[in-house]
Amino acid sequence: MPINARRFGDSFQLGSSISVVCEEGFIKTQGAETITCELDNGQVMWSGLIPKCEAPCGGHFTAPRGVILSPGWPGYYKDSLSCEWVIEAEPGRSIKITFDRFQTELNYDFLELHDGPNLLSPVIGSFNGTQVPQFLFSSGSQLYLLFNTDNSRSNSGFKIYYESKALFGSDNRIRKSV
Ligand SMILES: [Ca+2]
Fold first, then answer.
1. How much is the average pLDDT of 98-119?
2. What distance in Å separates the CA atoms of residue 34 and residue 30, rounded to the nearest whole number?
3. Which phi and psi angles does 172 have, rounded to 5°?
4. Backbone CA torsion sign across 37, 72, 156, 60
5. Separation of 106 CA from ligand 1 center, angstroms?
6. Partners of 20 in the β-ladder
7. Is 72 in the same domain as 156?
8. Is 149 exposed, middle or buried (0-12, 13-18, 19+ CB in 10 A)?
9. How far is Cα 156 from Cα 12, in angstroms, rounded to an integer?
10. CATH code where residue 27 lies
């Protein structure tokens, strides 16, 4: 029953519990990890709110790989968003971006990628509509993403995979010295 999540436990009997884990790219915005079926004033109820998993507006990633979803995914994103994501790989590594899905309002809703830790880092790509490259690499170990939408019309947004990769020519000495 929870969306964007995996459920562990199949029993909905009194006293039994289920736990809910959000799928990759989503975070829990409501509810507890585990809910128990219990009796409350003669009615069979869950002990807490039904967990809800949603794709957030922004985030900070340090895992070696992951998924970035536009907020609201798999539904449409909202108007007037400004979402920032930072991906941080280990020093001496680079970040590979793979566009799995991409659809924003043409000319108005932009995803901008910066080659570094923040907005001031050089832009390596600014995308809207459906035109995206298949892959993109950062030159260093950090990548900053900014998704700006204007005040009308939305679309399904994006699903992006990132993965930390060894920089060409780098070796362990470089990595350890940082
Ligand atoms: Ca728009």
1. 98
2. 12
3. -65, -30
4. negative
5. 8
6. 7
7. yes
8. buried
9. 34
10. 2.10.70.10
- 31 CA to centre of ligand 1 in angstroms: 31
Structure confidence by residue, pLDDT tens digits, 127-159: 999 999 999 999 999 999 999 999 999 999 999
Full residue range of the structural domain in which residue 87 is found: 59-166
65 with 118, same domain?
yes
| Site of tokens 């899905």 | 101
Retrieve residue 137's tokens: 């690499």
What is the count of structural domains for the chain?
A: 2
In a domain, 172, yes or no: no
Residue 24 sits in the same domain as residue 46: yes
What does pTM read for this prediction? 0.86
68 and 20 co-located in one domain: no
Q: How close is the Cα of 153 to the center of ligand 1, in Å?
A: 4
- How many angstroms is it from 146 CA to the middle of ligand 1? 14
Let me know whether 102 and 40 are in one domain. no
- Centre of ligand 1 to C-alpha 44, Å, is 44
